[in-house]
Amino acid sequence: MKKIVSIMVCFLTAFILSCGDSVTTDSTSCVTAFDCPDGKICSGGMCVDPSGDTSEKGDNDGSSSELPDEGGNVPGGDDSDTSSNDTPENPDTPDTPNDNNDNDTETPETPSDNDAENTEDSDSVSDNDTETPENPGDNDTENPEGSDSVTDNDISDTSDTSDTTDTSDTSDTSDTSDTADTTDTTDTADTDTTDTTDTGTADTGDTTDTTTDTDTADTTDTGTPEEVCEFIMHECINPITDFGCLPDMASEAVDYDGHYLCDGLDNDCDGKVDEGCGCKPGETQPCFGGKPNQRNVGTCRDGIQSCVPDAYGNWGWGECTGGILPQDTDVCDLADNDCNGCIDDGLCCNPPINCNYDIGTAQPFNDKIIDGNQIYDTSHLFNDAATATWTWTLTKGPCDLVLGTTNFFMKGATTAAGLAGDGTRTTTVSGAGLSWFKVKFLLSGSYKLKLKVTRTNGEVYECEWILRVVSNGLRIELCWDTANSVDVDLHLGKNGVTTGWTSVEDWAAGESNLSECFWYNCDTSRTYRGTNPTWGYGSTMNYDANGNWTSMPNPRLDLDNRAEGLKPENINLDNPNDGDIFRVMVHHFTEPEEECVDWGFLELWCDEYEYIYTYTHPVVNVYCGGSLKATYGADSGTRLYDFKDQNDSWKVVEIKWVGDVTSDECELTPNLGVADGYVPNYSSW
Description:
The protein is mainly beta. It has helices at 2-25, 398-403, 504-508, 519-522, and strands at 28-29, 41-43, 46-48, 150-151, 212-213, 232-234, 255-256, 259-260, 284-287, 303-309, 315-317, 347-349, 367-371, 389-394, 408-413, 428-432, 436-441, 445-454, 460-469, 474-480, 488-494, 540-543, 549-552, 556-559, 569-573, 581-588, 593-596, 609-612, 618-624, 627-632, 649-658, 665-675. The strands form eleven sheets. The chain has a five-stranded antiparallel sheet with strand order 24-25-20-29-30. Strands 16-14-18-19 form a four-stranded antiparallel sheet, with no helix packed on it. It has a four-stranded antiparallel sheet with strand order 21-26-31-32, with no helix packed on it. The termini are far apart.
């Protein structure tokens, strides 16, 4: 019995053991993995060994259980595989996080390398974008549009060859061999860390790498790089677009829409200023030869034009000269050279010179000093002020042209201390390092100053200004072409005060009319007889002929020439009153020479003498408030041809002052008559 029981127990045990084995080896129905024993997984509703599952989540093997989508792609498959015979590859070693090539730390994206196409010109290296819908799988996190790193193994990588402008990854355009990943059939994890050399060179051998290429250096793919302005871009914000040109007209002596056009402008932009406008002989006015709305814009400055007769004897305005006109284009000098309202418009530059520098004004008899280091910036780029050649140039004034010399003295130096002492009568000073400049004017006027800096390497920088020499009130200057041999004198009288002009005979008799201003009683540099005329004007502070700031009488003769060389005469009145009227007269003082006429007889005495006269041609300039209002005697209309006898008297002009002492307005009535050999009465003007 015991034997039977033992046999039954053994049989039952074997049966039970046999049942246990069948649970282990046979599939059991399941819904989830929790319905299966440990170590089993739930696949297709049955608990199976993991080793029995050949359908990898990471890389589809293309079995019939996986249906292709509308594009022919198998879900979970590697789209770059062109062969259906994928040989299983060895499991990839886990990728190092943040690998600079594969970046496998991203959340899983489509199992293949079908990265969504990036925005144009924003793809880094742009490998193999195919616009194929992505399926979960290949550990590549889909980057936002326009920021995708490189994805290897895309079969359409040949279309991304337009990324040739990627200046940081120029060699990655040859990654066309990455289209036949025939060996990558079972890339389950794509955690290959061996692809650490994908730095933008041609990926011709990496046929198994399905990870995301994070060649972040390729983020600058923006096409051909734009030229970068390395200096200052001088953008023209509000350029002048309306230059004020009116329709062409034969004469500007018209009332155009309530505006009188005789205004010193070329209103119809025909190259002529105030054509057809009448004027008085010898009169001058400021003028501008550019377009109307360019006047005093940028570097543009007025010139001067004189009233001259035409072929028929009609007086009209002549050519506008001496100003600064607009250039065709701007140059790099921090100035508005084309006078369109913008400095260096459109230019990308940082020049070492500033032609927009304000040089200010000057005064007669006072040193005008300019520190060129404020114009040419030695610390800016070059620092070559000491070796560069500085050339300072001034144009001549009206009397300079008559005398053939200059009535200003110039000097250049390397330091301010080097300017001590007098300069020379010249129009140009030039030399290495002459960054300091000094000029002393004897007369009023407007002079064109030019600075030229030539670097040691030959580069040239130039600036140009109008330097005005101004002083308040009335200033009358006289010069003549024989000033070194003939004595000619300037006289000024005031209506209602002056009773007459002094003749040579009056002077010889010891009599002088002290109610006028001339060499006898008005000279401030050397006193002869009498006192200054009493015209009711007080003394003013001003510069004397020696450059001293001191109290000066009014009126006064601050320059006198008694046949002493090529120098002018000048009378000043600093503080005229509104409505005051003055008259200007020029007197020929020199007695002609006598020469014995030899008739060929041997006589001990001379029976007859011949007078030798010296012809001279005086010029008078009238300044009101520092502005040149008239030049008489310098042109064919007012020039004197027969001014030669002692006591010849030229009645030049009557002047009416308009405004206060700061005004530059006066009304001129020229006489231009000559009293031959005598001095007229003041009242017989």
